[in-house]
## 1
Amino acid sequence: MKQQSHPFASLIVIMGCLILSACGDQLSLENASTPLALGIDLDQDEKFHFYATAPVYSKNIKKKSQEITGEAESLRQSKALQDSQTAGSVQGRNYQVLLIGRHLLQYNDWFPMLDVIFRDARNTITDRIIVVDGSVKELLYLNPPDQPLLPIILRGMVDTKTTKSETYSTTAQELHRQFMDKGVTPYVAEVKVVNKQIQLKGSALLNERGKYMMSLNAQETILLNILQKQADPGFSLSYLIPDKPQTGPFATNMLSFTGGKVKTSIKTAYANQKFKFDIHIKTTVGLSEHIFPIDITKDSPKLQKQISSLMQEQIEGIIEKLKKHKIDPIGLGVYARAYQYEHFKQVEDEWGEAISRSEINVKVDLTIGAMGPVK
Amino acid sequence: MNVEPQEHKSGDADPIRIELTDNIQHVHRLFCDTTDFIIRTFTIKQTGEAAALIYIDGLTDRPAINNDILYPLQIQSDAGKPGDELVMTVGHVDKQSDFHHIETAVLHGSSVLFIHGRTYAYVLGTGGWPQRAIEDPQMEASLKGAHQGFVETSGLNIAMIRRYIPNRELKMKRLVVGERGQTNVTILYLADVMNNELLLDMEKRIQQVDVDVILNTGELSELIEDNPFSLFPQFVLTERPDSAASQLLQGRCVVVVDRSPSVLVAPVSFFSYFQSIDDYSTRWSIATFLRLLRMFAFITAAFLPAFYIAVVSYHFEIIPMKLLLTLGESRGQVPFPPFVEAIIMEITLEMLREAGVRLPAPVGQTVGIVGGIVLGQAVVQAGLISNVMVIVVAFTAISSFILPNYDMVAAVRLIRFMLMILATLFGFVGIIVGLMTMIAHLLTLKSLGMPYGIPLAPVKFADWRDTIVRVPLWLMDKRPRSTSPKQETRQNTSMPKEEQP
């Protein structure tokens, strides 16, 4: 054996190893079909359907997206069916939104159907979950000519409205957490097709097994966000002030304000076999619109009291509905677990029941900090 | 010029004869078929002896021979007797009695005077060969630094360095390298700063070089470097006297090679290649920003095409949605896989760059137009290469242009191709493996026995002040530890204070 041949030989071995083991999972962009939206829904015969829309990368083709659909037992089982409809291999790596039809949400325990999203690590889990009030199929095949691709609109819609606290951009991962956490029930964004236009409704609330319970509009979603301590400054609320005159067709008794930093404190107690939550909301707002005349410098204490009680009433209304539906999107269970662990442990599996029996008190303290640059 | 014999083989001694004609015959034999070799015979007026002056035309300074040797010897003199000291107005005069030395001296531009009846000859320093004027350095242009670059004469180069450090501690060692070329190689160092062991190591390495001729500093550098298989340069070659002086003051040695316009600096670290002399003359905040920019450029120049290939062929889930649509549209019409696309563009770029270097300036512009317009635009319009790839290649090229050292840029070019192959084979995993191999290699590499990664690995915290960042000059009170200097304190300046006029 000559000593000199060793480096050369090892070089050949290394090159061999590199080349032989390489390219195993190579799949270039143009060979893949990358749907940006995935939808699941049931048809009239209660059969599970998947829907997907993938962008078409070509300058010569007018229509910019291709829709894939089919009846399936499960998402991964239908991979062959998905692939058979496109030129490339369908990859779940670029989902932007995951659409779920209200029809499907009439059933409990649909969440395990999404298992492949989490178990196949190639799939993204940052896609936004959106509930569709109506059929997913209708939304997906809408393709309005005056708007960009559906996933882009939906993602943009959900993300920007979330910064205003008007909806939730719940990712798949976040939804997974909400299902796993016994102290909270899931909440996601909800859209609807109205006159061939996509409209963001607000949020949809599900029970702990995933069944659709109720919807909240934009303003109610803001209030829920405040209760969840998630509301960012900049949200906008409007109320009709009851003792102001209304003239003509205009809502002249309307008042709107922009929220500042909200301080929500939640105190937890347990007495008489039930939980007790005292929620105290403190915030300073700036008036952005009042159509009736008022001298803020003089009448602001009275106005503050009026708005506070209007807001408090609305929040109490929401909480009543939550209790009626036995759901807890606020996450009061998390507080109960933290402060009343023993009692929570006993009821954690029927937390919805416990929340409906609990006593929830809300107090709103609102201060007007700014009245705008005009008198 | 004074030239010491490179090797004195004792058995080979070839002494000068008493008879002038014998000597002339011998010289004729040595320099037969050498048309530029000139023998001038005459009688010295002062002593009346017959003499012969030999020199090579073109290597010697003609006015010096005419006015300082021939004129005083033949015309202007007082009467004397044979054997007297001769009157010559030449600065450097050396007596030699061996033909070996005489031959070497003549070939290096000296003229030699034989005198009948004397067993020694006068070697006269009349060297004067074709020389270039001192110009702005081409490779290392500077905005605020001096506009003098090294030339091809080591004597002048040393003088230029000495102008910056007029100090008697600036010492030099002269060695002769090359059996045939007899190249003068001079090691310059500050005797009270430079580490002795490093200096001895450098001297030993140069002495061990046994080649025909050293034509350029780059050749010497390749013959004495620590790891000849590495892609990375291990010595800095500079053509700026101010850089060289700055390096000397930091405790490094500078090797000046005669006939080469660049000098070699050792020991250096990886970060030396990201420093430029302008860093010290611009404000420290700007200089720091520029250094960070260069590090960023190094990373993009090496990794960007590989990153593109990996993303497009393995990991397109990390592309943001809107970029995905653009990228998909752009890639959708390209008939080649990403690697082929990238390699075509990268090779085109390298070709354009080589073409630009070799071609004369007016034609060089044409290359730019062909490269920019024909390739950049037509290739995209024809649908052969995607827009994004052109942007990637252009960004890579710009990144490699802002690195101040050509040798490091050359290394980055090769590393880029290796990483591109790894990215094609394994995606991000390949890039990370390449990165880790590169880091491991950089950590084991040495320059003149000193670690290449210093001061980051091993950590010399005090040196960080002038590595990736450049702190204000008044904070750099110590010489860099990475050269283990004998004298550590460099200055005692404190922060300039605001003073009332």
Note: The longest strand of chain A covers residues 254-271.
## 2
Amino acid sequence: MKLSRRIKDLTATRLMMLTTMSAFALMIIIGVVLAVKSEQILSGHSLWSLLGSSVWKPMKGEFGFLAFIAGTLAVTALAIVLALPPALMASIWLSEYANSRIRSLFAPVIDLLAGIPPVVYGVWGTLTLVPLISETLAPCFVDFSTGYSLLAGGIVLAIMVIPLMMGLFGELFASIPRDLREASLALGATRWETARRVVVRKALPGIVATVVLAISRAFGETIAVMMVCGNVADMPGSLFNPVYPLPALIANNYGEMMSLPDYESALMLAALILFVIIIAFNVISHAILHRLKQRIA
Amino acid sequence: MENILFEMNTSVFVDNYKATAPVSCIENAALCIRGLNVAIQGKPILKDVSFDVPPKSITCIIGPSGCGKTTLLRSLNRMHDYTAGMKVTGQVTIDGNDIYAPGVDVAALRRRMGLLAQRPTVLPMSVFGNVAYGPKLYGVKRGELLRAIVERNLKAVGLWEEVHDRLHSPAGILSVGQQQRLCLARALAVQPAIILGDEATSALDPLATRTIEELLLRLKQQLSIVLVTHTLRQARRIADHVVFMYMGEMVESGSAQQVFSNPVHDLTREFVGGSIG
Amino acid sequence: MNRRFTEFIMKGLMLLSVATIMMVLLYILYIVASKGLRSLSWEMVTSLPTGGYYLGKEGGIANAIAGSLMMIVAATALSLIISLPTALCINFVMRRNGRLARSSRFMFDVLFGIPSIVYGAFGFLLMMWLGVQASLLGGTIAVALLIMPIMVRAIDEVAVLVPSDLTEAVFSLGATRYEMLKVVVRQLRPGIVSATLLAVGRGIGDAATVLFTAGYTDSIPVTPNDPAATLPLAIFFQLSSPVEEVQNRAYAAALILTAMILVISFGVRALVKYSRK
């Protein structure tokens, strides 16, 4: 073999290994940089006092993250609870009941909606959802709400993740062999029984993976939530109270508080918390998926 | 064999609807097919097919590939219902009632015909779950009764000895031959009157094929079996009756002996002799 | 009857879900379109805002359109240089489905899940370390980081489908790995283009990454070190303005951004359809 060809081959493959490894390095670097930057706040306060307190008074040197963490979790949980049942039901209808013409009509719409930027969903939320909650919905339950609330944040996020879920569910259900459905139908199962006991069951690992993806997306979503959730650092009490999720905290304050080194460091800790939770979440779900796949086979 | 039955309504017909009695059929026919036409997007696949499936025997449908054997079999339990563009006309009657008549409870109808597919189609659950799937749908909840049903049907296909210690493992870990027998046990668990087999042994090795064939020969004492087969040798081994299909038409049907040794039609003679197909 | 009732109820619930989801989503599109169309004009698209971006009534959003386009082109190019070799490496240099390939995939799943605000914050730290101001360059780097895992995953998805027969056939002709990859890339071209479009769609709409890294300005950036306005931020900042004309600029920007996504999404779809043929 000609030497030049071998040299070309070697350089190319080495370079490719290098880019892949640099992506590995990127993740470690992000973690390390964020950790180094949060060091200042961690050295002044115990981790427990940071995570366990909900008092956020940066000017007085009090940095309690609990309200933000609780706000993030509340808004994410609400979004998934609101989004999963209709997304799953609609996807089952599209794959098991609708004919292929209707399916091919829906698919591009879902695709398009999955691509619409968060900020646009935020605009819609501000224009329609916030007034709806403050004027119509909230008066039925509480004395007063501005409409900028946990509920608004949860609904906007739910609407954002529904197209994402439906796109993936659609692919998932389409990949399940027809034989399997027919085996169930041939035993006298109705279409719903077949969908629930065979299709959904077979697709369970994929459904879990999709939900994990939707949770990560909702968890880290910044702009859309920030525009409608009110951004008040209280523990989430009712659906109509404002909340303040972690990403919104970073987005609202970063860059403007550089004069207070503790404050900047606290915001970096917020980013680190997001980073660590996402990684932990991925690792755990990976393990669950692995076991689920083996069990269903 | 001990008979463990669970209570259920075997009527295929909803409310008080009864379809009109069909044209003449042989006595006690398990299925009676008259003037069956199937077309997909206007293109005919089956043309005016008529024959009877005699009770408690094995009927083999033979013919070259692409002749409509599988389509025919699938129209017997209305599997085409969900295929877009499929149009089925004609009559298929079970116990004197037309399955294509309006008002038929398709799910209940399908329960009376077990289906054995080309490749084993184990459901994504345990061995036990597969066999118990049908009875559970029909409301059997008592664990004891379910276990008895599972055991009885696994024994009926000779699988009990092999799998009784891993009933709760995923069915996917069984060998292909065992999976196919499991599918048969699953079909038997809902007490069908007819078993439909679509080249049910084509994915199996000769030994597993032999096992399935022996099972079918034993089962025909209790129920009727309709088998699409891709090998003439299999039809010769197990068929009591043979239906020969060619280009979407039923060319000849009769007892196995008559079709194989003394066919009426030239096409049948050529096919059976091996010069076409 | 009970089972048929369940079927009926469930079907109703499913239809209700489909209808609700579609109505809400169409309502969003309607709001964006109606608000946007009212404020959209040729002048809006082609002129720069004057008199301060928050309060100035005159002018349009040309700064944001230009800034977004420049940034996404640069970021996509930068990201492609890393993502393409990485996706190929995982599939064709590493042992297929080996431990290394599997853990790489897992890592990109994690990177894909990291919130864009974290990429924004990290990008900002990176810029400070490099001594770069909030600028077109800074925004480009942050967006490139955000879309890199998206592209790797999307290219990987099509690369897994390349049969090993193909690579073996090329190897058997005496090709080196590098030469084999050139063949593979040609095969993958539609997949690479649609992965790129997907990343463009995601990158152009993300506000959190560019919030601290790109800055905001009323003019069009001339050098990479100038701050750059972007469409998502143009929407975000101007929507909260008390001045109606400025708010209208936000609605126009939202419509333009949505229209861009529409074009991209149909582009991907057409490409997928084309490459299947």
Note: Chain B is about 35% helix and 25% strand.
